[in-house]
Each structure stands twice: as C-alpha cells, then as structure tokens.
Amino acid sequence: MTEKAAAGGYRRVVLKLSGEALADGGGGGTFSPAVLRYLTGEIAAAVNNAGAQIAIVVGGGNIVRGELVEGEMGISRVTGDYMGMLATVINGLALHSALQGGGLDTRLQTAMNVEQAAAPYIRAKAVRHLEAGRVVIFSGGTGNPFFTTDTAAALRAAETGAEALLKATNVDGVYSSDPAKNRGASRYSSLTMDEAINKKLRVMDATALTLCRDRGLPVHVFRLQKQGALSAVIRGESEGTRIAA
Q1: What is the pTM of this model?
Q2: Burial of 51 (0-12, 13-18, 19+ CB in 10 A)
Q3: Looking at residue 171, which CATH number applies to its domain?
C-alpha cells in the first residue's frame, strides 16, 4: 500500500476505540449511555458528512484486562487474554446496538467463534460491507492471546485496505511525556513510526506500529471528546498527531 497524503483526506479508515472509551471515566459503570450516544453522533457525522467508510476495532479494558487478571488473580496470561477478547465482543455488541439505534447500518464481526452473538470475521465480507456504506465493528482482537487490540486494529486496517488507522484517546495527540503528570510536556504535530518506537512514546505497542510502518499505513492520534475531531482527521485537516509510515 502506498501512503495517502493526509491533505487529500481518507476514503476508508479503521478507528481504534479503547474499552474505557465506552465508559464515562467517572467509575459510573461499564458503559455510559451518554458516551455511546456521543460516539454514535461522531461516527454518523463522519459517514454522512465526510463520506468515509469506517471500520472500528474496540478494546475490552472497561470490563477486564488480561495482564491485570494474570497479575492480581493468578490466572494465566493466555486465559486472561481470552477473557479480554470476550470482553471486546461484549463491547462490540453494545456499540453495534447504539450505532444501529442511531440509524447507521452496522455489522459486527468477531475473530472468536461466538456465532450466536456475532458473525465470524471474514475479510471479503467485511470489505463488501464497507463498500456498501456499512460501519463494520471488529471484535475478538486477533483471536489469539499475546496480541493487543492495537495490533488487531493494525492487522484489520492492512487486511481491508484502509488508508489510515485512527486512534481515539483522551488527549489531543502524542506528547513527549504524560501531560497529566508533566505540564511541560510538548505535543507532536507529526512523527515517524521509527520516532514513535525509538522514543517509547507509548502510542501503540511496537508490533502494531511496525506493521503500520511496513504497510505504509499512517496513524492519527486525536482526542475523542473533541466534537468533530474524527471527521476533521478523515477530511485531512490538521488535528491531533499524524504518525507517518
């Protein structure tokens, strides 16, 4: 894949949402109805106004995190990761329902075998859904332990021919250090994949960034809570941090 210039906008993207993004952040529960409504509005605007084909990879950290299960409960990492992947299916169902309720034609696919709840991930079907203007949610991670949902997002983006991977966060880009802890942290408007990896900026795990670099797939990090930011990134406007392949 040849990297597409951000100035021209993107036709097809993969949006990476953390599981925590579905909660209200205030300890008020696993899902926040207000957040789900907000996400639905932002995604609908990107589809209807920016004309984008959008696939979404959702995490499961609002329900369970594999490494915490392993460390605190004595459950093996493999089992913990499968628990985390099942959590992403639960989040996928919640997001699917919200988007459908908001008038978006949506399909949920999963890398795990839970056919009563979601269709299995099949690349060709996912691409056809995107071409038909449907939003496609990918859950179940990669279907394998030891891989993060960041890596799953990079993998699905490469497989489906996405032109960019968009990572929604609670900050407005990538900083030199944690801006919540260091007021002097500086924000990068752009980086290369190698800079992000070598500086250990914790944008995504190294496996995900390496895959994006090797596939010529740019990554955009932006603030989810900023209304219109998703559409702005898709249109090619300067928003957040762009990590060039």
Answers
A1: 0.91
A2: middle
A3: 3.40.1160.10
